[in-house]
Amino acid sequence: MQRKGSRSRYFDQRIPKDVQSQLAGMTLQIPLGGATQPITITPAMAKRSIRVSLRTDDPVTAKIRQAEIVAYLEAIWRSLREDAPVSLTAKQATALAGFLYHAWANDEESERTVSGTIGFDGTWTPEPPPLPHEMAAAWENLREKLSALPADDAEALEAVLGPIVDRQLLAHGIRKVDSHSRLILLGAFRDALRDAAASRQRQAEGDYSPDPKAQRFPAWQPPGEPAKPATTNANGKLTLGDIVEGWWAEAKAVGVTQSTYEAYSRKMERLKEFLGHDDAGRITADNIVAFKNKRLADGINARTVKDNDLSALRALFGWAVTNRKLRVNPAVGITLRPAKTVRTRARDFTEEEARAILKHAADYRKGPREDAKTAAAKRWVPWLCAYTGARVGEIVQLRKTDLRKVSVMGGEVWVLTITPEAYTVKDKEFREVVLHSHLVDLGFPDFVASTKAGHLFITPDTKGELRGSWRTMKNRVTESVRKAVTDPRVRPNHAWRHTFKTIGRQAGIEDSVLDAICGHAPGTIGADYGEVTVAAKAKAFERFPRFNVDGPT
């Protein structure tokens, strides 16, 4: 869902009734793209839901983060339902401590989550950042304090490390352990954190060589489950392609889109090209770090590397670990801190740009060898985006049957139906948009009436697939629009969604109605109740002004 006034998407999941009483008072560490966000569950919240910003407006990244949170919460619910103490071996305790080590030793954002609990000098990075020798001293101080904690003093260890141990246990589906296992865990966590502090001290002193102690942590094996070997294919190895296809077999069954599959496939193929092999069992965390650094060196935006490349790899390898095909997820704990995006202009079109695009579209004429549907898309898609606030992909997939007349308010209006039945719609929900009177006057209904049955602007291939034509047509429209507006800082079709909202607000149209027209999620749970009717949308479009290509809007 989306909150009013925010571009980021939100995760919202109701808390199961049978765990609500146990959850009250706990602090959960919600995973968010390699970092974590602490959420303390109040008694009132325990009766409602877990709600957190996914900190992204990218649909692929949002789905990845949503899946990570769902998996984390399922482990929490499972652990709360299993009330009997669990017994852990020293190897299992060391494996759990390894998650803490990697979070701290790799300098990720997640270290700031646990740092407040530790409360030692080396856990806080003020602004501006301290000098390297100051950080080295801080990490040395932390290491010394951890070393001073006696390994057999459960009370002293519990005061410092208890909350962190509890969070790791919950995240792995364990509510509590017996007293012997608890002491082993506390000692293992102390040693892991001490080793991580030593590694960070070396880095602050300029030594970035791999830490040999990083290899001492075994793969996590849940209690009660026998160790299983990694699954291989007929050739004796598990390939990166095997992981993608295995993940996709499950993902498509729960509604993950084809575009997400294609995006994940590209990320894994890019990793394969970088490594020079596709043997998943040979890939290490160092390989993922090197891949990350290569992408950055190639000039790829840091946020793209963090939210797209690393998130996709983490999800894919995570699937392989969950399904016992790999023992370790090499992408866990690998992240970076992208700089804040610099925006030097509004995301809307200016009045001059809007007029230039629409005039270019209105004047467009079919080329001698140009396909009739391509010419029609260049003529009509910009105008439809301008008067509907729809995504360009939602417009290019329109069918003849998606436009109809509806009786409303003692008259008739034309209504466009934007539906996943035509091809694909974000969030998989249909919506109805009243056709602005200007589009009627320009002759869009007449154009639709003149077309053959089926899609207005795209054509299925010989297998009946639409994706190739759909993507090509979006590109053709973009190329055409770029002839009218060349500023690279504005997105040539998506900017209509911002422009539509801005003009609608200026006209006094309620945000709830604009959201319903554009297909935006309501800003609050309460706003999701009831419907914005065709009649309400028709009244809104009576206030929405006409675009004048020859003068001010």
Q: How many domains make up the coordinates?
A: 4
Report the sheet-strand fraction.
Answer: 5-15%
> Which superfamily, in CATH terms, is the homologous superfamily of the largest domain?
Intergrase catalytic core
Derived structural class? mainly alpha
| Straight-line N-to-C gap | 32 Å
Q: From the alpha carbons, calculate the radius of gyration and give it in angstroms.
A: 28 Å
- Overall residue-averaged pLDDT value: 82
Q: How many strands, what sense, and barrel or not for the largest sheet?
A: 3 strands, antiparallel
CATH topology of the largest domain: hpI Integrase, Chain A
* Helix proportion: 40-55%
Helix-strand sequence: EHEEHEHHHHHHHHHHHHHEEEHHHHHH
Low-confidence segments, given as residue ranges, are 108-129, 226-234
Strand order of the largest sheet: 5-6-7
| Number of separate strands | 7
InterPro entries: CB, DNA_brk_join_enz, DUF6538, Integrase-like_cat_sf, Integrase_catalytic, Integrase_recombinase_N, Integrase_SAM-like_N, Tyrosine_recombinase_XerCD
Family: Belongs to the 'phage' integrase family.
Protein name: Recombinase XerD
GO molecular function, one term: DNA binding
